[in-house]
Each structure stands twice: as C-alpha cells, then as structure tokens.
Amino acid sequence: MADRARIVIVGGGVAGIEVATSLGRGDRADVTLADRSLSHVWKPMLHTFAAGTARADRQKVDFFAQARRNGFRFQPGALVGIDRQARRVRLAVEAAEGRPEVEIAYDLLVLAIGSRANDFGTPGVAEHCLTIDDLTEAEHFHDQLRCHLLARLDRGGMLEIAIVGGGATGVELAAELKHAINLLSAYGSPDLPGRLRLTLIESGPRLLPAFPEKVSRAAARTLSDLAVEVRTGAMVTAADATGFTLKDGSRIPAGLKVWAAGVKAPDVLAGLDGLERSRTGQLVVGPDLRTTRDPAIIALGDCASLTDPQTGKPVPATAQAARQQAQHLARHLGRVLARGDTVATELPPFHYVEKGAIVSLADFNGWGTLGRYTFGGGRLNGLSARLTHDLLYRQHQIGLYGPLRGTLTWVLDDLDHLISPPVKLD
C-alpha cells in the first residue's frame, strides 16, 4: 500500500529489533530496520563472547531472516546523517567496496543506536585499549585474548590483563575471564590460572555503584578470592602499549587492556544539526520519546536522554530501560496505526519502572535487586541471580521468535552446551 506510513528504525539492538518486529507483524506500516551489522545479539552477553564462554554464532539473530518472518525490511548500513527537511536518513554500507551511501525516506525515524564507553579523552586509550560495546569488538577482543594465550603457552610468562571500569560490564568480564582460564586449564595447562594477572581498575570508591553497598563489598570479595586484583579509587591518567599509568604515578602492567568505563552517545549524533543533545551527547527527548526539536524523530535506549516526569530522575542507560521504551513505543504506535491515525499523533508519556538489576559473576556468584530487597550471594545462593539473568535473555528471545520457536531455541542452546567445548578457541 503506497499510503502506508514509512517508519525507519536505525539500530538493531534490544530496542530497535523489538520495535521493528512488533510493528512489522502488524502489517500497518512500511517498516525498515537498518544496522551496521547483519545480526543481532543481546548486549548483556557481550562479555561472554569476549571471554569465549559463549559462542556468538549460536546466539545471533539474523536480521534478514527476522525481517522476512516478521514483515519488515532490513537495510545494512551505519548512520551517517539525516536530512530533516526532506526526511531522509543517510546510511553507509560499510561491508561494501568504497563504503557507498544509501538514502531512505521516512515519515517517522526511530534512532536506537546505543552507546559507547567513554574514555574522557584519556591519552593513549583510543590507541591501546579495546572495548566491547558491540559484537565486532567482543569478537576482536576474543581474537586478541587467544593470541595472548597461545603466546603464553608457547613462550611462558604471565598473561597480564587490566580492565578499567568497575560497573557491571567490567566486573562481569573479569569474572568471565577467570572462568574461561579455569576451564582452559583442563586442556593440558594446569598452571594457566596461576599465570593470569588480572586487574580491575575503578576510579570511584567501590565497584558496582548502581547496586547496594553490600553487593559491592561482596563482589569485591568474590573477585579477590578469584585472585583478581581490585583497585578502587584509582584514576587512570594514560594508557600505552605496556599498561596504564595512574594518577598517583604508579603503573599497572598489561599486555591486554580493556576500557569499560563511562557512557557516551555515538559520535555520529554530534553531526545531527539542530537536535538538542545532553552533556554526554545523547539526544534529549520528551516524555513521548520524540526529540525535543523534531517530532518526526524518536530516540530510544542509550542514545536518548530522558528525564522521567514522575520522578524527575534521568532514565538509566540500561537494557532494561531500552526494552521498556521499545515495548511502550511498539504498543502505542501500533494502536495509532490500527486506528488509521498518522505517525505524528501524540503518544502517551513513557514512565520508567525500576524492576531491579542483576549482576552475574560467571559460575562464581551473582546478585539481584528488587526494590529495597537484594537476593543472591554465595556460590550456591548466587544461582538464583544467575538463573534470573538467563531468564531475562530467554524472555527477549521469546519476544523475537514467538513462544514456540523461542522455547525450541532455549532447548537447542542447552543441547549445544552438552556437546560443544566449554570455551571457544577457534
């Protein structure tokens, strides 16, 4: 139908793919999803792909296949710019020779392009540190980890890894790396765990600042028991090929360096003239998720800056918040389209509901929060938090695949764990 609204969604993360899937199934709009990658993965799993304890090729959602099954189109490409007057979005097809650009016309543009770690301009970080903000980076980190491991197995010596950032990403990555090394020690290298020097650096006074202090203390104890050196109150002032320099002048040697601190919007948003941005580069949106200066553009998830009108607090840059925003938009925009209204119709305000948070330290421990209550802790008790973490992922899969295929995917994943090596080495 030529008169159907043209909805373009840029970014195939948690928010983008759920909105595209929901609106595409409704068949009331011409929906296009664009992403620089050809497949979707659940971002909270990136640290497991980086460590090799989960295989990304088993967890990917192919965008082309998802689009075909759910009535939307997929266009490969990274956001380059927007012509707001003509309502056309420009994308660069990175995998193609010469990086050609394509343009897509829209009536409503939904930006869900996530966020990046923020190095705050620290000298040497961009040149010498790895990040794991997306699947490509997680897989690149794993390749580097494998190279360093093979070098240590061949020539001996210490495997020195340092992670900057004591939030959930840094803490979970540290635990997952210890778990991977412990598993690899059974491959004929029983001394391997003793040759890993792993340091976690946090500039603030404690790890996991978004969690209650008792969880921070327990996580630090767990990591210490795993022989991870935890440095809090440590400000990194520079990075180079051999490690980090701290504000007090001390050095932390590391051949493999990861930056997992801070959050900022992707740099491309800085080039979108006329749109209001926050201090960290996010697009400022109103309660209806539309950008403050252009109602034809909606921003979701980490790339959006939203102050909840009920609480007066900023909505956090988490997968939980992104998913709630996606569900809110898909539900209400779907109703607008079902009534035959235009995409310019005002949408109800979004209200963020804090449903708690979960941090899982591989098979070693885990904690969750529900309001004022905390659960988990201890090797066995932490199982409840780790299972909840897994169930959230399965819920996401069912939302994308439907109940039957989502459940079958869960079963196949469990079967694969029985026959595949516990750590990816290829």
From TrEMBL:
Domain FAD/NAD(P)-binding per the UniProt entry, residue ranges: 6-326
Gene Ontology MF term list: NADH dehydrogenase (ubiquinone) activity; NADH dehydrogenase activity
Record-linked InterPro entries: FAD/NAD-bd_sf (IPR036188), FAD/NAD-binding_dom (IPR023753), NDH-2 (IPR045024)
Matches recorded under Gene3D superfamilies: 3.50.50.100
Pfam families to which the protein is assigned, alphabetical: Pyr_redox_2
Lineage: superkingdom: Bacteria
Record's keyword annotation contains Repeat: no
Keyword annotations from UniProtKB, A to Z: FAD, Flavoprotein, NAD, Oxidoreductase
Family: Belongs to the NADH dehydrogenase family.
Protein name: NADH dehydrogenase
Organism: Methylobacterium tardum
